[in-house]
Automatic annotation (TrEMBL), chain A:
The gene is nuoN. Residues 120-409 form the NADH:quinone oxidoreductase/Mrp antiporter transmembrane domain. The keyword Phosphoprotein does not apply. It is an enzyme of class 7 (translocase). This is NADH-quinone oxidoreductase subunit N. Pfam families: Proton_antipo_M. It catalyses: a quinone + NADH + 5 H(+)(in) = a quinol + NAD(+) + 4 H(+)(out). It comes from Paraflavisolibacter caeni. Its EC number is 7.1.1.-. Belongs to the complex I subunit 2 family.
Automatic annotation (TrEMBL), chain B:
GO terms for molecular function: NADH dehydrogenase (ubiquinone) activity; NADH dehydrogenase activity; ubiquinone binding. This is NADH-quinone oxidoreductase subunit M. GO terms for biological process: ATP synthesis coupled electron transport; electron transport coupled proton transport. Pfam families: Proton_antipo_M (PF00361). It is found in: Endomembrane system; Membrane. It comes from Paraflavisolibacter caeni. Its main location: membrane. The lineage of its organism: Bacteria, Pseudomonadati, Bacteroidota, Chitinophagia, Chitinophagales.
Length: 467, 495
């Protein structure tokens, strides 16, 4: 290993580590204004995104523990972009927050964990980075310091993730016992679908289910999403889920390829259960954060469906969908966060008549919801369609029929929000919000993403070349 | 001719509209835009006829094919045959008439016209597409504006109707989606290309499985019994232009899809299910007609009669003969024009009298002679009077149907014929009560007759109806070769 390799292959991780130290020093020293610190952090996050785009090389470090290639690099840049957008969208909330440096300290740590997570080439590395990615988020969930619900959310998150980590470790140790290795490149050769290995795989997959909030491991999701500050909720539902989907793809397609029969059936069941439960529960939600929580559970169902295809197109369509999901979901969370920061309102009925007072926010939220629902010409249409097509490639039509049925169910509640904003009238509508430039800029990026990523086929073709 | 112009023109109109500052500018932009659409549609008809008379017998003319998503073999592939040209003409007629009759919209004018234009983009794209992915893309684009049109600008139980319509249509398109994916993976080559798929051998088992999905999916759009329930609610709650677009364009998307996608790609499936289709169509025709008899509200009358009339489209398709399919297409065009005009007239009456109830109206001929005369014309067209398009269309369908000698087909044909009597009853009764007799309410005496925009809209649509009615053969000649291609494989199967 040359020292140059080290710097170039781990550039993203190193950059984040430096930023973490920088924030620590800023915290120890004093005197920086919140607003200017926030701007500095936003600029740094943008630089981080640029860093993730440039000088990408393939390579392996530390004896196969750390793997990077163009696909991993692309996935990291999606996560970096998402974090950058979140920092812009929550400007109003963060400006007033008394613990700004800590907030980003924790968020960067978690992002660093995710970077290592999707680069990991070894079950031990995988476990460690997963913990690094999760534990800071639990602290972040507590950042609405005055609210009891926020601490409750943090508690629920840390307990449930500790539990899932336990299960994960159990699965890993079983695998180690059965195969004698924890290395991703050596594992496939030792897998023979014995009962013990299948058991171990089920444990492993349950842990993934927990993190992805797939049904039946989803119970923590709604409470945590509702209690956490919106910036954290969006980080959890977009960035954290995205990274888990990426590593799940790698693990399934690269490591457990010999077990593909097993995980196809498993994914099919998980996927259908997740779609149905997510959708049916989303129908009844009145709090917009809980609503988005359940809708994002349903989205995971579609991601799992795409994964099940076990081919390049499954891989490409999942990465493509996550890219679209970042923009659509962040646009939705962005509008919710702006409104919540200015008025404190989070109930769906509070959005009545929003179009009369805030047309830009309403159109943004509407387009984001259309994209989540999969209505053209938004990118979500293409994302969903490719996931469905990948899922259909094995020829199980009933699987596709159920998924299509779920598209219709989900349309009902997405349109419900549109109806509330555009058609209902309210005596006390949310007053006209004068939004700050940073958040508007981020919403603009999200909108551009929602419109362009679908219609311009270059994005999908590019992802396809990374396979 | 460059077919993408038909998609780009409304797109430019929409973008220009976004830049406009006041309602007046928005209206004029959309009027100019829809006039350009009409000109383009006529230009297309003209060059298409020229090509054909010059001896170009290729199935699809003016094809353009660009790769879109190469990994999935998805193409931006457009092209037209006679059937598409007829549908595009219909769309252009209805769009300009819809824009004209909505001149008095007060609420959110820019958004309203934007929705109308968006819907037209969806419709043009749908009729032009030769790639199933593209077709599905445009089909879905055409759904959502309807939800907003009904929900925001509608009347009555508008939110319920908007939801019902959006969910049922999306349910239909979900079925279509499953069918499309099935077709994509079933053939020996993975392609969405309509022309290629029609030549690929698709196993009979698969056809048997996929045909009902595709046909029922598109059938939801065109009020296939028992999926017609969105029609009355949707139409009655929609604003005037919304109803016109719904019945005039949107329901035709379904008929066109049944024909172009389901029947064309899956001929063996079509053959197998044809008795079920005609049974459902006959039920829709009779049920629609009898249900109309019971209606008191003018919009409900036209909505249920649309169910009945669209039944003829499905009947024609289900018969699987060249004449019947030609008749089905002519019926789509005719019904599109006629029903758009019908809803326009109802809108005009409602705007003035603020009621749509047949019982409360009366003697309108004395106060609004122009509007009432249009009402007469459209009513007579609806009941199939010779000289109007309705007669030509239904006659062609019946003639085509009579070519099938088997018992079930005969029964369905006779049942469908009987509906004409019922149609005459409800149309004449509705017209008689509203137009004739003494003026029922004092306030009606001061009502004004049609304004310039309403007159223009009516004249445009009536021109279409009468031209088809008086000189039907050009339309027949335009459509028949297209129908021949669709039926080709099925007639080979029969021999």
């Amino acid at each position: 290993m040359e020292i140059n390799d080290f710097f170039i292959l781990m550039k993203g991780e190193l950059f984040l580590a430096v930023m973490i130290f920088l924030l620590l020093f800023i915290k120890v020293g004093k005197g920086m204004q919140n607003a200017s610190l926030l701007t500095l952090i936003q600029v740094l996050l943008f630089v981080n995104f640029l860093v993730s785009l440039t000088f990408n090389r393939e390579g392996v470090l530390f004896g196969d523990m750390f793997i990077t290639n163009s696909l991993v690099a692309f996935q990291k840049s999606i996560l970096s972009l998402g974090t950058f957008l979140i920092s812009l969208l929550s400007t109003d909330w963060l400006k007033k927050h008394s613990h700004l440096p800590e907030f980003f300290l924790l968020m960067f740590s978690s992002l660093l964990g995710m970077f290592f997570l999707i680069s990991s080439g070894n079950l031990l590395m995988f476990y460690l980075s997963l913990e690094l990615a999760t534990i800071p988020v639990a602290a972040l969930a507590n950042f609405d310091l005055e609210k009891r619900k926020s601490s409750e959310a943090a508690m629920k998150l840390i307990l449930s993730s500790a539990f899932s980590s336990g299960i994960l470790l159990f699965g890993i140790s079983l695998f180690y016992g059965a195969t004698g290795t924890i290395n991703f490149s050596q594992l496939p050769g030792h897998i023979n679908a014995s009962a013990m290995q299948i058991l171990a795989f089920v444990f492993l997959a349950s842990a993934f289910g927990f993190k992805l909030s797939a049904v039946p491991f989803h119970f923590w999701t709604a409470d945590v999403y509702e209690g956490s500050p919106i910036a954290v909720t969006s980080f959890l539902s977009v960035i954290s889920k995205g990274s888990m989907a990426f590593i799940f793809l790698t693990v399934l397609y690269k490591v457990f390829q010999p077990l593909s029969e097993v995980w196809y059936a498993l994914l099919m069941i998980l996927s259908l259960a997740t779609m149905f439960i997510g959708n049916l529960f989303a129908l009844r939600q009145q709090n917009i954060k809980r609503f988005l929580a359940f809708s994002s559970i349903a989205q995971v169902g579609f991601i799992l469906m795409g994964m099940s295809s076990n081919a390049d197109m499954g891989l490409a369509s999942v990465v493509y969908f996550v890219l679209i999901y970042v923009f659509s979901n962040l646009a939705a969370f962005g509008v919710v966060s702006v409104i919540s920061a200015h008025t404190g309102k989070e109930h769906i009925n509070d959005y009545k008549g929003l179009y009369q007072t805030n047309p830009f926010l309403s159109w943004t939220l509407a387009l984001a919801l259309f994209s989540l629902a999969g209505i053209p010409p938004t990118a979500g249409f293409f994302g969903k369609l490719f996931l469905l097509a990948a899922g259909a490639s094995k020829g199980h039509y009933w699987f596709v029929i159920f998924a299509a049925l779920n598209l219709v169910i989900s349309l009902y509640y997405y349109l419900n929000i549109v109806r509330v904003m555009f058609m209902d009238k309210s005596r006390h509508p949310i007053q006209s919000i004068k939004n700050n430039r940073a958040a508007n800029f981020a919403l603009g990026i999200c909108l551009a993403g929602i419109v362009l990523i679908g219609l311009v086929s270059w994005f999908y073709e590019y992802i396809q070349t990374l396979m | 001719m460059n077919l993408t112009l038909l998609i780009i023109a409304p797109l430019i109109t929409a973008v220009t509209m976004l830049l406009m500052r006041n309602a007046q500018q928005v209206k004029w932009t959309s009027l100019v835009g829809s006039a350009i659409q009409l000109v383009l549609a006529f230009a297309l008809l003209f060059v298409f006829q020229n090509e054909r008379s010059a001896g170009n017998t290729e199935q699809m003319l003016f094809q353009q094919n660009y790769t879109w998503f190469s990994a999935w073999n998805i193409h931006f592939h457009v092209g037209v045959d006679g059937i598409s040209v007829a549908m595009i003409l219909l769309t252009a007629f209805v769009v300009i008439a819809g824009v004209l009759v909505s001149w008095n919209v007060q609420k959110m004018v820019k958004e309203f016209y934007l929705m109308l234009i968006l819907l037209s983009i969806g419709a043009y794209g749908f009729f032009l597409s030769l790639d199933l992915f593209l077709l599905f893309f445009f089909l879905e684009i055409a759904v959502l504006p309807k939800f907003l049109l009904i929900g925001i600008w509608g009347s009555g139980e508008k939110e319920y109707s908007a939801n019902k319509l959006a969910l049922m249509l999306m349910g239909g398109s979900a079925l279509v989606l499953v069918g499309l994916l099935g077709v994509y993976f079933a053939g020996s080559e993975r392609t969405f290309d309509l022309l290629k798929l029609s030549r690929l051998p698709i196993p009979q088992e698969t056809q048997r499985l996929l045909f009902p999905l595709l046909f029922a999916g598109f059938g939801v759009f065109t009020a296939l019994f028992p999926f017609h329930t969105w029609v009355p609610d949707g139409h009655s709650s929609a604003p005037t232009a919304g109803s016109m677009f719904l019945a005039g364009i949107s329901m035709k998307l379904g008929g066109y899809g049944c024909l172009r996608v389901a029947t064309y790609i899956l001929p063996e499936g079509a053959k197998e299910y044809s008795t079920i289709i005609i049974a459902l169509a006959a039920i829709a025709i009779l049920y629609g007609a009898f249900a109309t008899m019971m209606q008191k509200d003018l919009k409900y009358i036209n909505a249920y009669s649309s169910v009945s009339h669209c039944g003829f489209v499905l009947l024609g398709i289900g018969m699987l003969t060249k004449t019947a399919i030609t008749g089905a297409v002519i019926q789509m065009v005719s019904h599109g024009l006629m029903t758009a005009l019908f809803f326009a007239v109802i809108g005009m009456i409602y705007d003035r009298t603020h009621t749509r109830s047949v019982k409360k109206l009366g003697g309108l001929l004395k106060v609004m002679p122009f509007i009432t005369t249009i009402f007469f014309i459209v009513g007579l067209c609806s009941l199939g009077l010779p000289g109007f398009s309705g007669f030509v269309a239904e006659m062609t369908v019946f003639m085509g149907s009579w070519e099938r000698p088997e018992i079930p087909y005969r029964v369905a044909t006779i049942a469908a014929c009987m509906s004409i009597v019922v149609t005459a009853v409800y149309i004449l009764r509705a017209i008689g009560q509203t137009a004739m007799g003494p003026v029922t309410e004092e306030r009606y005496m001061t009502l004004k007759d049609a304004s310039w925009n309403e007159k223009l809209a009516a004249v445009i649509l009536i021109t279409g109806i009468v031209v088809i009615g008086v000189a039907p053969f050009w339309l027949n000649d335009l459509v028949a070769p297209g129908a021949h291609h669709i039926i080709e494989k099925i007639s080979q199967l029969n021999n």
